[in-house]
Specification:
- A hairpin with an 8-residue loop joins β6 and β7.
- This protein is 30% helix and 20% strand.
- It has 307 residues and is of the alpha/beta class.
- The chain has one domain: Glutaconate Coenzyme A-transferase (3-Layer(aba) Sandwich).
């Protein structure tokens, strides 16, 4: 017997023959068990990125990242996942722009899709080719706000939210996790969408500073990172620099991810390159132009460029 009652129209539209692959993203029981098993004492969690990926990223995991698009994203940590050859990964994000690097090497096979593209540089041709060739399967379609609400629900410990997100679009017809219902307090017709809590297996979030315990400081917008840190079963923090705890404790200018969410802390200067890091460095525009124009021309070009 199936554990969850999914949106059957979406299951049929996405041509999913086995819905059990959907279960883990919304499995509260296993997420709660993982959180209860975490080490909540203050201890030194510093390690290399190789050690962090080998320990906390497993084949088949649902992976998510922090930041937004190519801003404050843990690109250098992603490259370590590629070097270690992790397989059969799923990705979810708001947006989900960085999965193409994994698709290039055949590591991501399933996507919980929101936006995948290069913004002003157009669509992501790597993702487009892989999707048309059947090398990647979409498991669910989301808006940015829908993913954000799912992660926020997980952070708050609630089953989900009733929302107006994605109503009036075809996203509901291509997302097995969403259910349209009548607003329970309204007498007149007033549809709402139930957005369930989302629990990725592992999140990798790049921050400006962190201490050895895992308290992590973000200068500027945190986007969904506080909710993501709480929702994920495992959390790897990468930081531009490791600083004394008091540097973070008495800093009133940014957002702080508390230590008890973190499983690993990695000092990684320029860890967001080839993306940008607010207040630290800008993304190399010429690199991205070459990536999109040369790498986007063919699968062979893209692999040669990434290598």
């Amino acid at each position: 017997m199936a554990k969850y009652l999914y949106n059957q129209e979406a299951v049929e539209n996405l041509r999913l023959s086995d819905t059990s692959i959907l279960d883990r993203l919304v499995d509260f029981e296993s997420a709660r068990e993982a959180h209860l098993k975490k080490e909540h004492a203050k201890k030194d969690k510093r390690m290399t990125i190789g050690e962090a990926v080998a320990t906390y990223v497993q084949d088949g995991d649902i992976l998510t990242d922090g930041g937004f698009s190519y801003v404050r994203t843990a690109h250098q940590a992603f490259y370590e996942i590629i070097r270690q050859g992790k397989k059969n990964l799923q990705m979810i994000g708001a947006p989900n722009t960085n999965q193409s690097f994994f698709i290039t090497y055949g590591l991501v096979t399933h996507s919980h899709s929101s936006y995948t593209g290069a913004e002003m540089r157009g669509i992501d041709k790597v993702y487009d080719r892989a999707l048309k060739a059947g090398k990647i399967t979409i498991l669910s379609e989301w808006s940015h706000g829908g993913v954000a609400q799912g992660l926020k629900a997980a952070q708050l410990g609630v089953p989900g939210f009733f929302s107006k997100q994605m109503l009036g679009s075809d996203l509901v017809r291509y997302n097995p996790y969403l259910k349209v219902a009548q607003h329970p307090l309204k007498a007149d017709k007033d549809p709402v969408v139930f957005v369930p809590a989302l629990y990725p297996d592992v999140a990798i979030i790049h921050c400006h500073m962190a201490d050895k315990y895992g308290n992590a400081y973000i200068y500027g917008p945190a986007v969904n990172d506080l909710a993501t840190a709480a929702a994920a079963r495992k959390l790897i923090i990468t930081a531009e620099e490791i600083v004394p705890e008091n540097d973070i404790r008495y800093n009133r200018q940014g957002q702080i991810i508390p230590f008890f969410y973190a499983d690993a802390v990695v000092e990684m200067p320029f860890g967001a390159l080839p993306g940008s890091m607010p207040g630290c460095y800008y993304w190399p525009r010429q690199w991205w132009e070459k990536c999109m124009r040369f790498g986007g021309a063919s699968a062979e070009n893209n692999l040669a460029f990434c290598n």
